[in-house]
Write a structure and sequence with these properties.
The chain is built from 10 helices and 7 strands. By secondary structure, the protein is of the alpha+beta class. The chain has 2 domains: 144 residues, no CATH class; 117 residues, no CATH class.
Length: 280
């Protein structure tokens, strides 16, 4: 029963953080320590045998009662949701606040994970885990799940650099087509449409027709403008960035890093993040 993956690796991981909110600081620490015990069991970080895992759970049942089984079930459902996201898998959790790194091997995988964090389903999972934890500890505890902004920047930069770019030696005319997206799901759909094989298939047919009309070889390719797309992803993810960083004004991305500066922290309502390249 191992719910983590070492095979898929990227240069950077999306660092997500679980925090507990209780009426006392000591209770928050107690809640996170207990939760981490069960996360370790779920992920089987120490490669325990089935018998050893069974024994550990039985020990906790003797202390906390059958509520342990409910917490295990809630955590399994949550981690299974994450594990089912393509190209994004949970790494080994660490205690502090509980840090769960997400190994993202594609932009689509990262977007799908952000979309999951923004979903009602994820909110319900965290609510059930919070409820089970509260019942075991006999005091109220609410869990939140956020992202380290720097890690979001790093992952997007790494994945962006892996994308192919048009040949700079060819003569290129660019058509910029603006899209408006109000959600992370919308951004995911845009990425899937214009960076997937379906878009290339349509453009190949259009290229053939256009070549016949103009009497010259024309090749059309679609590409998302990464600076603009990154701004949109950041804006849609603001609610899940760690509060400490946001209180300081958010991460200040610099032009040298190929992302965006602090002036872009205003809400992005409509951005042109699709380019259509025409090569002759």
């Amino acid at each position: 029963m191992q719910i983590h993956d070492f095979k898929r690796k990227t240069k950077n991981e999306l660092q997500t953080i679980i925090e507990a909110k209780c009426d006392q600081r000591q209770k928050e620490k107690e809640a996170l320590c207990l939760l981490f015990e069960f996360v370790e069991i779920i992920q089987n970080q120490n490669d325990f045998s089935k018998e050893e895992i069974k024994h550990m759970i039985e020990q906790r049942i003797r202390y906390y009662g059958d509520l342990c089984l409910q917490l295990v079930d809630d955590l399994l459902s949550w981690f299974t949701d994450m594990r089912n996201i393509p190209d994004a898998v949970p790494g080994i959790a660490q205690l502090g606040c509980i840090r769960i790194p997400m190994k993202c091997s594609s932009m689509k995988g990262m977007l799908k994970h952000l979309e999951y964090m923004d979903s009602d389903e994820c909110e319900q999972r965290l609510s059930k885990i919070s409820c089970s934890l509260s019942n075991m500890l006999r005091f109220s505890c609410s869990l939140s799940w956020t992202i380290e902004p720097d890690s979001l920047q790093n992952v997007m930069k790494t994945l962006s650099e892996e994308l192919e770019t048009p040949d700079p030696t060819s003569k290129t005319v660019k058509i910029v087509l603006p899209f408006q997206s109000k959600s992370l799901e919308g951004l995911t759909n845009i990425w899937t449409i214009f960076e997937g094989e379906e878009a290339n298939s349509h453009l190949t047919k259009v290229s053939e027709t256009l070549s016949k009309i103009v009497g010259a070889n024309v090749s059309l390719t679609a590409s998302v403008v990464m600076d603009q797309f990154t701004k949109a992803v950041y804006e849609r993810s603001k609610g899940y960035l760690t509060e400490a960083t946001m209180a300081a004004g958010g991460p200040h991305f610099t032009p040298e890093k190929g992302v965006f500066d602090e002036e872009t922290l205003e809400r992005v309502k409509k951005v042109p993040f699709l380019s259509l390249f025409v090569h002759g």
